[in-house]
Design brief:
Strand content: under 5%
Helix content: 55-70%
Structural class: mainly alpha
Order of helices and strands: HHHHHHHHHHHHHHEHEEHHEHHHH
Distance between the termini: 30 Å
Number of helices: 21
Strand order of the largest sheet: 1-4
Largest sheet: 2 strands, parallel
Radius of gyration: 24 Å
């Protein structure tokens, strides 16, 4: 235990040093467009808030009103048929707003400079650390349930967390590009842990919070509902749905409950539902359990807000603008290693190309989406089977959807394989040979990001010519590797032989 603690501490310190060094080294190749846009979005909210000229003198109430009203203002300023100049979900816009306020207070008004990045980098640090802890908790719980001793389980959980913390794709994405893709990772892993532990309400709430930071989490969130359904665990499935809708209603109420009439209806519905739920929980606590009654009560209250709000003056612009689906209508955004890039490169197919299958004609984008969601259902079946057998292959089922997402879905950025790469750190706890999958996915993710970042900054010479040549030779046809790994992981999400506890049998 002492050696394990020392090793984890040393890896943590090394990871911090690598991040600091990479931030300085990558300065000439900084992809400033993304981080400058984040600061600009926050600045616009501050400008809407008014105050002492630069927005810093506005009260917190004024700042909050400007933040809530930003989506409606953007909608009013966007001509019909054009994409809005804002594609941030509410959580991400809130952090950008707080960052803009902090940097104006510290440095005064102005555009992006590296010295202004401290606030956002600290958010990245915090959520990377939270993700490492979430991975440790999840892997440890799965291994203990499969029969491993606590020390063995903790050791492999720490190895997985360290591999995540030191992952090169993560370091480049969060500290050299930089971007905020890591923000959804701790919420996804913690939600998976909660579903595994049958804490459905917490899992649903975590999925909402993570989605408000990075909307791509919504694409995979259905896995956390299908998993307990296929497992036959209807209480957990009900909890996931109730937690998801209740947290959505609570966090989106500033937009949805926009009038006094709606507020009155919401308060009356909440009070009535609360009274009925408490009474039902008392009388049915031994038959169905308090959790089930509470979940049903939360569902009713959430549906009241979500259904009544838009019909009484509430705004849905936070959804249509914050979670756009047609902003980048391209097969591939950057030098991608996936099926859409191969189709675009070889046959010049586009997302709207009509494709006929089984007598049904639909855009190519729709078929590829159905392919992904079908694989998501298969992964959920594998997860349900593995969790019922207490198999470590549960971990594979949690990782596989993110690799499949990148492999088959159009409109992916080159950064999005980072999710599959960093989560694959958990696979070594299932079987050490999976480190090859970790290395392959990480190499591809790094190659794709550098193939975009370095040329855009005119800094190809920042890497060895041999490395650059290798990354270019990978090309879109490396997507066959990505698809193969996705299928392998999808199949491996189903359980292997039954696990036996690592304890000696009595003689």
């Amino acid at each position: 235990m002492l050696l394990l603690a020392v090793g984890v501490f040393a890896a943590g310190a090394v990871g911090v040093e690598w991040r600091e060094s990479l931030w300085g080294y990558s300065a000439p190749a900084r992809f400033t467009g993304d981080i400058a846009n984040a600061l600009a979005q926050g600045d616009r909210v501050l400008d809407d808030a008014g105050g002492a000229g630069d927005g810093t003198g506005a009260s917190w109430a004024e700042l909050f009103r400007a933040y809530v009203g930003r989506y409606d203002k953007v909608r009013d300023l966007t001509p019909e048929g054009q994409n809005a100049d804002l594609d941030y979900p509410p959580g991400r816009l809130l952090i950008a707003t707080l960052w803009a306020r902090q940097t104006r207070l510290e440095f005064g008004p102005g555009g992006y400079e590296d010295r202004r990045a401290g606030f956002m980098l600290r958010i990245n640090y915090a959520l990377e650390a939270a993700a490492a802890v979430a991975i440790l908790l999840f892997v440890r719980s799965v291994l203990i349930a499969s029969g491993k001793t606590k020390l063995v389980a903790l050791t492999w959980a720490c190895v997985s967390a360290v591999l995540f913390w030191l992952n090169p794709a993560l370091l480049i994405n969060a500290h050299a590009w930089p971007q905020w893709d890591v923000w959804l990772v701790p919420f996804y892993v913690l939600a998976a842990w909660c579903v595994y532990m049958r804490w459905g309400l917490a899992a649903g709430a975590l999925l909402v919070v993570g989605s408000l930071l990075k909307g791509q989490l919504l694409i995979v969130s259905a896995l956390m509902l299908l998993w307990p359904i296929f497992r036959g665990d209807w209480r957990t499935a009900l909890g996931v749905a109730a937690g998801f809708l209740a947290m959505t209603a609570a966090l989106m109420s500033p937009w949805l409950v926009a009038s006094g009439w709606a507020t009155s209806i919401w308060i009356a519905t909440t009070v009535a539902t609360l009274i009925v739920t408490l009474a039902a929980a008392w009388f049915l606590r031994r038959k169905v359990g308090v959790t089930v009654v509470a979940s049903i009560g939360l569902l009713i209250m959430a549906l009241a807000v979500l259904l009544i709000g838009p019909r009484t003056g509430g705004s849905m612009n936070w959804l249509t603008i914050g979670f756009p689906t047609t902003r980048y209508p391209y097969m591939a955004l950057g030098p991608l290693h996936n099926l859409p890039a191969i189709l675009a490169e070889t046959w010049r197919w586009r997302v709207g190309s009509p494709v006929e299958l089984l007598g049904v004609v639909a855009p190519l984008r729709s078929w590829m989406q159905w392919l992904f969601f079908g694989s998501l259902a298969v992964s959920a079946i594998g997860l349900a089977w593995s969790s019922r057998r207490r198999s470590t292959h549960v971990i594979v089922g949690v990782v596989a959807p993110w690799v499949m997402l990148f492999a088959v879905m159009p409109q992916m950025h080159e950064r999005y394989l980072t999710w599959g790469a960093v989560l694959s750190a958990m696979l070594v706890a299932v079987r050490p040979a999976y480190v090859l999958v970790y290395i392959c996915l990480t190499t591809q993710a790094v190659a794709m990001m550098l193939s975009t970042q370095l040329p855009s900054a005119g800094q190809r010479d920042m890497v060895w010519p041999e490395v650059w040549s290798f990354s270019q030779k990978l090309g879109p046809f490396a997507g066959y590797t990505t698809m193969t790994l996705a299928v392998v992981l999808l199949a491996a999400s189903f359980p292997g032989p039954k696990s036996e506890p690592d304890t000696p049998k009595p003689v």
